[in-house]
Amino acid sequence: MDHWNNLWGTTEALSSFAEGEMAFGYKGAVADYWSSVFEAQTPQAVVADLCCGNGALLLAAASYSCSTDKDFMLYGIDAAQINFSAVKQQLAKLTAPVRAEFLGDTSIEKLPLASQSVDLAISQFGFEYTDLDMSLTELHRVLKSGTSLHFIAHHPESFISTDCSLGVAILSALMDQYLYFDLAISLIELTLQLKQKSIAPAQVPAFAQVNQALLAIMQKFNQNYQSAYEQEWYSELFRQTAQAVLASDFAALERVKALKVNTGFHLQRLVQQQAVALTPEQLDQKLAAQPGLFAPAVYTEIKSNEGLIGLAVKLTKI
Question: How is residue 17 annotated by DSSP?
């Protein structure tokens, strides 16, 4: 969970939508899908946003509620430690007061909600990360009879998953195969030691060796990954590291150490995203193992001009 605590604690983004362009809200086919879900709800529906992150989907529900004179009661729930300040600021800007409660550090598999108290459960790229055997049972408990869980899940064949696979390959190589950040840290530490002794780095063979090794890694990546699409995964890391090496002071050393930690957490999130990508067949197997909870799942592929975004799932409580 540390890798998610890291994300929500270091970004103002409202969602982890590929940690990219929709990080501050949803649009296009995703927004249209959720609008259709919200439209079907009663005016005072109790809505639980599961694995809510910094609250992008909850904000979408609140915005819809205000714009249509509905009065949703909203719960934002996530297992990570989140302070929710960003979404609270956005909620305060809406045209009408919003009833919302946020529950961080809260297991989706054991919700602090009363049985049959929820009219709608929703999740955007989150519910598939839970222990589905346990969370499906728990959702059946808290949902009212005949109401539904709607969630959009990562799919193995989505363009987001394809991008994720590329990111895993590049970041894994940087961190584990080439030890890029370790070399940068070693170079800055060596420079600091030489400065303390008033020794010019050019006079020390070890400095030249580490510096050349670092430059060789950068050159190799620029040769192997030449498209802008590929370079998005590492160009900013190279830029920040190069600036730190040029500065080679204690603040720069701490920046590179933090960059290594944050990149490691990012890699963990990507690896987990690969692991949880969901197909209809996989979910149907889970549902078949727990008969009597939900009606057969309804699946909708959510697409954009770039291709498949994710798999929308509707589960209605029996």
Answer: G
Distance in angstroms (rounded) separating the CA atoms of residues 174 and 260: 10
The tokens describing 68, both together, are 């249509």
CA 75 – CA 73 distance, rounded (Å) = 7
pLDDT of the chain, 318 residues: tens digit per residue:
554 455 545 555 444 444 444 444 678 999 999 999 999 999 999 999 999 998 999 999 999 999 998 999 999 999 999 989 989 999 999 989 999 999 999 999 999 999 999 999 999 999 999 999 999 999 999 999 999 999 999 999 999 999 999 999 999 999 999 999 999 999 999 999 999 999 998 899 999 999 999 999 999 999 999 999 999 999 999 999 999 999 999 999 999 999 999 999 999 999 999 999 999 999 999 999 999 999 999 999 999 999 999 999 999 999
Distance separating alpha carbons of residues 166 and 313, to the nearest angstrom? 26
In DSSP terms, 317 is beta-bridged to: 294
Write out the DSSP string of 145-166: EEEEEEEEE--TTSHHHHHHHH
Q: Within a 10 A sphere around the Cβ of 183, how many other Cβ atoms?
A: 19
Q: Which two tokens stand for residue 50?
A: 């599961």
Structure tokens at 163: 């991008």
| CATH superfamily, with its number, for domain 2-158+277-316 | Vaccinia Virus protein VP39 (3.40.50.150)
**Do 84 and 108 form a contact (C-beta atoms < 8 A)?**
no
**pTM summary value:** 0.88
What are the start-end ranges of the H helices in the chain? Answer: 2-10, 28-39, 56-67, 85-92, 132-142, 159-172, 180-196, 205-224, 228-231, 235-247, 250-276, 280-288
- CA nearest neighbour of 32 among 4, 5, 3, 64: 64
d(CA 121, CA 148): 6
